[in-house]
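> agent: user asked for a holo structure of the chain below bound to flavin mononucleotide. Plan: (1) validate sequence alphabet, (2) canonicalize SMILES, (3) run complex prediction with ligand conditioning, (4) return tokens. Step 1... ok. Step 2... ok. Step 3 dispatched.
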Amino acid sequence: MNGLRFNPLQISDGLTLENRLVVPPMASQTADTLGLVTEKTLEHYSRLAESGAGLVMVEYSFVALSGRSEPNQLGAHHDDCLPGLSAIATRLHQAGTKAGLQLTHCGGKGSYDIAIDLMGPSGIKVPAYDRDLEQPRPMDMQDIQYWKDSFINAAIRAEKAGFDLVEIHCAHGYGINQWLSPLTNQRDDEYGGCLKNRSRLLLEIVAGISIHAPSLSIMTRIPGQDLYPEGLTQNDMKQVAQWLVDAGVSILDISSGIGGWNRPKSRRGEGYLVEESKALQGHTHVPVIGVGGIQGADYIEQALENNWLDLAAVGRAILQDPAQFKDTHMSS
Ligand SMILES: Cc1cc2nc3c(=O)[nH]c(=O)nc-3n(C[C@H](O)[C@H](O)[C@H](O)COP(=O)(O)O)c2cc1C
């Protein structure tokens, strides 16, 4: 086999990815209304593994009921979720890929019908490209502690379920993005104000997961920048990335920020967000994932060759037909 995309990548002593293709987290809406895995969920992930990717990420899974943003969203909030999560990890491993679980709290990016209790760092409406969100309530110290415990407990479940890594969702305007961004975090305590304070909750979550789920690798999906006026800048995120790596993160997954994951109007073509991973590639010692409209082998080879990314995430092109993607792009 020729091609940089077939080179394995060692993440830690216990974790090596077999190649440079990643299936990014994509909500499948296949959980039941309690957030539990169904047969459809298992079939969905078996199908995604047919892509030949070295890592398949399981969609954003809420860590607490207050963090749920969609009715059939997967949950990681309760021990009842364990059997289903274990079944997904087993299916992915049987298919020969590594398994990651993305953890999220929607914060203010949800609706009162589903989350019941919408909250955010400062009670500021989350700006979004595609909708007008409801006003969340501001969070107090008890809420902060609850989020921290919820993320750590969900990671412990992921470890028990047999996942190789967890990803904390800090992008696309969801809860942790709201803490990082100056647009939504205007607190004047130690969790708000300067960038270090706005990163504090995230860094405490990472540190807690490292201690309580030590066999898991930790990945963070962060914005390369908020891509919103007055939001997080590329320089801010370079600093946050360094703090994350110092705290124990071993892969940085670079996407978009507060407005959502859709292609920003100003970005065109294949790899429309790869400029963002490029800014962080080589900035720390850990690998970066790039994403955004990537279609196949030619682009992935070019991006690896030019060090725009270390791992390429391909979402919709794989979702369409994973086996076909493998035949066309991942076999020699
Ligand atoms: C149906 C669908 C669901 C998605 N759900 C998530 C999600 O759960 N978590 C996340 O971080 N991104 C999510 N995304 C964004 C993708 O992970 C990816 O960043 C985006 O689709 C761009 O990559 P692509 O152009 O290769 O599809 C979703 C995208 C799609 C199409």
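> agent: step 4 complete. Summary for user: The CA atoms of residues 121 and 185 lie 5 Å apart. The domain at 4-329 is CATH 3.20.20.70 (TIM Barrel).
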